[in-house]
Write a structure and sequence with these properties.
The chain is mainly alpha-helical and 379 residues long. The chain has helices at residues 5-30, 55-71, 78-92, 115-132, 135-151, 173-189, 193-209, 237-254, 257-273, 300-311, 316-334, 360-377, and strands spanning 40-41, 53-54, 93-94, 97-98, 101-102, 108-110, 113-114, 162-163, 170-171, 210-211, 216-217, 220-221, 234-235, 284-286, 292-294, 297-298, 344-345, 356-357. It has a domain at 50-168. The chain has a 3-stranded antiparallel sheet. The chain has a 3-stranded antiparallel sheet with strand order 13-14-15. The radius of gyration is 20 Å and the shape is globular. Belongs to the N-acylglucosamine 2-epimerase family. It holds the Pfam family GlcNAc_2-epim.
Length: 379
């Protein structure tokens, strides 16, 4: 079945928004003379100081610029990409490990090593290596992996969320992104040792994160992965869709059919209970009642929905409709002129007036990149 022209039109318009406007404008206004990315910009592309500059933000920007260049979607940013990579390793890698954040004046703020941020070191440096073949990136991927293995392993499975290690509420989210990082590391290096990490993290989804009765992915846990007493019912449909996409990526490496079965279960729960009648994806629902907890809508969940739509084995007509409706919603409710976007909608699809985070471009870019990959596969 051919892709409908209206869907081609939406894809082309979104590609223009991201590659001709959003990314160039972030480079122009969001990257500083020192080479790092600002943490946030106002809606009119002005600096929005928030009191910290995170490793996470720098890695998401490095990933986006590297992968978009690797795709051939953008050109001419080699200097900015190399400068950003150098800034990251010079400013955030201290005494044999990664720190969490700097102050606005670039002095050190938070020296904790954060598992969520380390996941994005793996992801960003893998794509930077694929673009540049700079062996320094491989060295830091290996150092990051070794640090996680030696210092952040939790005795009851998974990882501690930070180092120095503290006993506190545990989350599935850092583990999900570590899975993404290890998939990228394997794809960049073909080093089979990362397959063990991939399988282990998928097993955590099966055995700890997903409630088998409700087929919901839970977010917050106690030390032993029992549900957190206060937040254990919370479910984020966007993370359902993110896991769907990731489990399809891991299947290309491990060929574990049980992971595709889990992906289908997560997909079915999320499309039945996570999509709002007036469009978009709820921020959160209850895993017990499957009713919305937070009916407002950040932009990132619908970009994860795009990724899941692209990989799920759906009838062609259904896939076309889902992608068309989602891209239309993004264009009409999130994208505004000059590459800007609405970060946060209320339940009635009105803007909540948020600034532009430096971390969101990663979601927007990767959602569209998967749509473009799917579009090319249909030719």
């Amino acid at each position: 079945m051919e892709i409908p022209q209206i869907l081609h039109k939406h894809i082309d318009a979104c590609a223009k928004h991201v590659f001709q406007d959003l990314i160039p404008n972030w480079v122009n206004y969001g990257l500083t003379d020192q080479g790092y990315s600002r943490e946030s910009l106002t809606i009119d592309w002005q600096p929005n100081l928030v009191g910290r500059i995170r490793l996470l933000t720098q890695c998401r920007q490095l990933f986006t610029l590297s992968y978009a260049s690797e795709m051939g979607a953008i050109q001419g940013y080699d200097k900015q990409i190399d400068t950003l990579f150098t800034f990251i390793i010079q400013r955030y890698y201290i005494d044999g490990r990664w720190i969490f954040s700097l102050n606005d004046d670039l002095s050190i703020k938070d020296t904790q090593s954060d598992a969520y941020a380390l996941a994005f070191v793996l992801l960003a440096f893998s794509h930077y290596y694929r673009l540049t073949r700079n062996n320094e990136a491989l060295r830091y991927i290996e150092l990051t992996h070794a640090f996680i293995e030696q210092h952040m392993r939790h005795p009851k499975g998974g990882v501690f969320e930070s180092y120095p290690c503290e006993v506190k509420q545990r989350r599935q989210n850092p583990h999900m992104h570590l899975l993404e990082g290890y998939v990228a590391a394997y794809q960049a290096t073909n080093d089979t040792k990362y397959i063990a990490n991939i399988i282990e993290l998928c097993d955590l989804a099966h055995n700890a994160f997903v409630d088998t009765k409700s087929k919901t992915l839970r977010e917050f846990f106690q030390d032993d992965f029992a549900l957190d007493a206060n937040d254990g019912t919370l479910v984020e449909p966007g993370h359902h869709f993110e896991w769907v996409w990731l489990l399809y990526q891991t299947h290309t490496i491990t060929r574990r059919e049980q992971d595709l079965k889990l992906a289908e279960e997560l997909w079915l729960t999320a499309i039945e209970h996570g999509l709002a009648e007036n469009g978009g994806v709820y921020n959160s629902i209850s895993g017990d009642t499957l009713q919305p907890i937070d009916s407002e809508k950040r932009i990132w969940p619908i970009t994860e929905y795009l990724k899941a739509c692209c990989v799920m084995a759906l009838p062609a007509a259904e896939k076309n409709v889902r992608l068309e409706e989602a891209l239309s919603f993004i264009r009409n409710h999130y994208f505004i002129d000059d590459g800007r976007w609405i970060e946060y909608l209320d339940g009635h699809n009105n803007s909540k007036g948020y600034p532009l985070p430096g971390t969101t471009g990663y979601h927007i870019f990767l959602g569209l990149a998967e749509v473009l990959k799917w579009q090319d596969s249909q030719i």
